[in-house]
């Protein structure tokens, strides 16, 4: 689902409460932004906020996350390019209380960044987490192929 919402729809979702509203300035905006981000991270089983796109990552850490997902055969995921929207870039950091990009969410839960995903890949936890989502890791098929030789 790489960018399944498209840029215009994602931008519309992330207006950060700029519309009419009462109350204290900024309070409704922050709440609205968090609610919109909450909807984004829960919309798909796998969601990644990265610099660039899965087809053209713009930093090494984002590229590493994309490559790890590819190794596991995960192709159907929502990807949001934070370089397209400075408010999204800061908003997702505030939402997760995590200072860096990329950020990975599985089933609406924040997993971490590149370092955490790499560690999960290396120790086998990512295979198990994907299984909980109903996603069979392609690495299981590779291992089975190697064992049968």
Automatic annotation (TrEMBL):
InterPro entries named in the record: Glutaredoxin, GRX_PICOT-like, Monothiol_GRX-rel, Thioredoxin-like_sf
Domain Glutaredoxin: 46-111
Name this polypeptide is given: Glutaredoxin-related protein 5, mitochondrial
A molecular function GO annotation: 2 iron, 2 sulfur cluster binding
Subunit structure: Homodimer. Interacts with ISCU. Interacts with BOLA1.
One cellular-component annotation, GO: mitochondrial matrix
Record bears the keyword Iron: yes
Origin species: Nannospalax galili (Northern Israeli blind subterranean mole rat)
Record's function text: Monothiol glutaredoxin involved in mitochondrial iron-sulfur (Fe/S) cluster transfer. Receives 2Fe/2S clusters from scaffold protein ISCU and mediates their transfer to apoproteins, to the 4Fe/FS cluster biosynthesis machinery, or export from mitochondrion. Required for normal regulation of hemoglobin synthesis by the iron-sulfur protein ACO1.
Keyword Iron-sulfur: yes
Swiss-Prot/TrEMBL keywords: 2Fe-2S, Iron, Iron-sulfur, Metal-binding, Redox-active center
Source domain of life: Eukaryota
Pfam families in the record: Glutaredoxin (PF00462)
């Amino acid at each position: 689902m790489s960018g399944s919402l498209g840029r215009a729809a994602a931008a519309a979702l992330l207006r950060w409460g700029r519309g009419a509203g009462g109350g204290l300035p900024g309070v409704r905006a922050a709440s609205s932004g968090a609610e919109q981000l909450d909807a984004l991270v829960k919309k798909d089983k796998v969601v990644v906020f990265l610099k660039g796109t899965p087809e053209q990552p713009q930093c090494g850490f984002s590229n590493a996350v994309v490559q790890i997902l590819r190794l596991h055969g995960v192709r159907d995921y929502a990807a949001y390019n934070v370089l397209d929207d400075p408010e999204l870039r800061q908003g997702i950091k505030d939402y997760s209380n995590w200072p860096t990009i990329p950020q990975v969410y599985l089933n609406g839960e924040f997993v971490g960044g590149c370092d955490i995903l790499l560690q999960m890949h290396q120790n086998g936890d990512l295979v198990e987490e994907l299984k909980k989502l109903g996603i069979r890791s392609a690495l299981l098929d590779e291992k089975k192929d190697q064992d049968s030789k």
